[in-house]
Amino acid sequence: MASCTYCGTETRPDSGFCLGCGMALSSDAAASPAGEPDGREAERLFVGRHYDFVRKSWEMAEHRSPKRCWNWYAFLFSFSWLGYRKMYRLAWVVIFAHFFLNLGVDIYTMGEEESQWGAWLVSLGIQMAIALALGFFGMPLYQQHVKRRIADIQAKYGPEQAWAELARQGGTNFWSIFGMLFFWILLAGVVSPLILFFALSLSEAGRRAFPDAAAVPAYSTSPAWSASRERSPRASVTWPLCAQPLKRSTT
Question: What pTM does this model have?
Fold first, then answer.
């Protein structure tokens, strides 16, 4: 196996350009115009390392309806795996879906001690649902991402520059794993408790300012109405704010 002198990536001997960075491996390749990368060669250049494993997963998903293929990395690491594969937009969607769904459950059960276990189970169910969805459909989503990015690069750049852009914009981003985890810890450990604290403060302040707000004034009924309910279509109903009894139809 030949190695690229620029990035050290191992490439096939018959490759004129590095599959890791897109640089020419020989003077002959640099002197001759490079053809536009397409098909498997473009996919291999964009995906980078472990392309054979990725391609095998795609082929397995192609034979199932809907397209699905189990991936443990996507299941276990969720949005961190998406960031590692440079699917940043979907990673942010998953992060904020986690955050707002769990925050909604916490606000709904806020101040109810007997509902804490139920809220914890609902939050766990949300996380498991998202993890299972990524575990089954993560690789097909990545395939769509690769095809879309390759098409965009080929439409924007010329044949020679497309090789380098595929290698630069593709591949993986190891450091995004830590960036995504840090942002999630910031949301779950700092932002969410602050929102819950202010929501609880506002609710308690509202109860102190309007102590009778939760009390619903009930209307009173006369004994005659209760006694004549079954035999009379009309009954006398006395409302709290009315000086005279009102007639209420029961039909």
Answer: 0.66
